[in-house]
Amino acid sequence: MKIDRMLEIVFILMNQEKVSARNLSERFGVSVRTIQRDMESLSLAGVPVTSLGGREGGYTILPSFRIKNGEVKEEEQQLIVKALQSLATTYSSDTLRSVMEKYHALVEQKGQNKIYWDFGVTGENRPVQEKNARLETAIKERKLVSFTYCNAKGATSHRVVEPLAIHYKWYAWYLFAFWPEKEAYRTFKVARIRDLQVQGHAALREHGDIQQRMKEAETAYYQTCIPIEIHFAKEEQSLMEEYFPDCTVEPIDEKMCRLFLHVPENERLWKALLLSFGDRVQVAGPDSYRQSLIETAEKFLSNYDRQVSHSGDTLGVPT
């Protein structure tokens, strides 16, 4: 999987002065172009990778980023540990285990403090990890897969798609695939996939640069998001900045502030998050989204013989 390969590339660069794209492509069994895309992704992620031209050229990493001769400070070791363990909670992989073991051996040199690995965290979210493993196999073998899918509205459907990539974002794993029936690319949340089956016949369509297809699909997806206007008291600003770090807080007056959150209209998790703030936030618009939140609150409270009080433009619950 790409994330495995990129992790190993980082460790190779941190322990060698330079390495060629050809050597990396042979080591990982991929094309030189794939290695070049990996380097571009690492650079975009903030890893200081540099390309050296000429016959003796290749890729190198800034000396300040290189782990060598046990020069990693204890707090830096712990930061790397936390990053790898965080990854391990969502992704189970023999290659990831290998990378962690290599780092363990590296920081153990010259009497440094030992770092012990607890792989128990990889047991979390096991159903998703098992589906990821099957999807990886299907991607490698270019096989179609079939499954039952439950969308954000709770509706189920049967899909037969060509899996192209799995990726981790928004704190969850997603499958990026081509849906032949609609002649379109789609993204599926792996946790919502049921009855996953790998088909016997292979896919024949060529898709070009998969990363580019993913970027195009993500751009189209964000165009379907709507802006949610949220009002809150000024003293709640630090809390809002914690939960919505990418949103700009704007003052309304001396006591109130607002921000605009761009979210999928039917995604339940965003609605649940907004409702969890109780009376600390007020959804000012759009009206359709605000009304949807009110209806959700009414349905929830109906289980407890309670009613929502419609007072002005707020969501209030009588005590």
Question: How is the topology of this model organized?
Answer:
Elements: H1 2-15, H2 21-28, H3 32-44, E1 49-52, E2 58-61, H4 74-88, H5 94-107, H6 126-141, E3 143-150, E4 156-169, E5 172-179, E6 184-189, E7 193-202, H7 210-222, E8 226-233, H8 237-243, E9 250-251, E10 256-263, H9 268-276, E11 281-285, H10 287-302, E12 309-311, E13 314-316
Antiparallel strand pairs: 1-2, 3-4, 3-7, 4-5, 5-6, 8-10, 8-11, 9-10, 12-13
Helix pairs in contact: 1-5, 2-3
Quick take:
With 319 residues, the protein is an alpha+beta fold. Helices cover 39% and strands 26% of the residues. A hairpin with a 5-residue loop joins strand 3 (143-150) and strand 4 (156-169).
Structure write-up:
- The protein has 319 residues and is of the alpha+beta class.
- It folds into three domains: 1-66, Winged helix-like DNA-binding domain superfamily/Winged helix DNA-binding domain (Arc Repressor Mutant, subunit A, Orthogonal Bundle), CATH 1.10.10.10; 126-222, SH3 type barrels; 226-316, Alpha-Beta Plaits (2-Layer Sandwich).
- 39% of the residues lie in helices and 26% in strands.
- The chain is built from ten helices and 13 strands.
- Strands 6-5-4-3-7 form a five-stranded antiparallel beta sheet.
- A hairpin with a 5-residue loop joins strand 1 and strand 2.
- The longest helix is centred in the middle third of the chain and has 16 residues, at 126-141.
- The protein starts with a helix and ends with a strand.
Q: What is the arithmetic mean of pLDDT?
A: 78
Task: Specify the CATH architecture of the largest domain.
Answer: Roll
Number of strands: 13
Counted by DSSP, the helix tally is 10
The CATH class of the largest domain is identified as Mainly Beta
What's the N-to-C terminus distance? 53 Å
Q: Give the strand line-up of the largest sheet.
A: 6-5-4-3-7
Low-confidence stretches: 109-124, 312-319
| Biggest sheet overview | 5 strands, antiparallel
Overall geometric form = globular
Judged by helices, strands and strand pairing, the structural class is alpha+beta
How many domains, as an integer?
A: 3
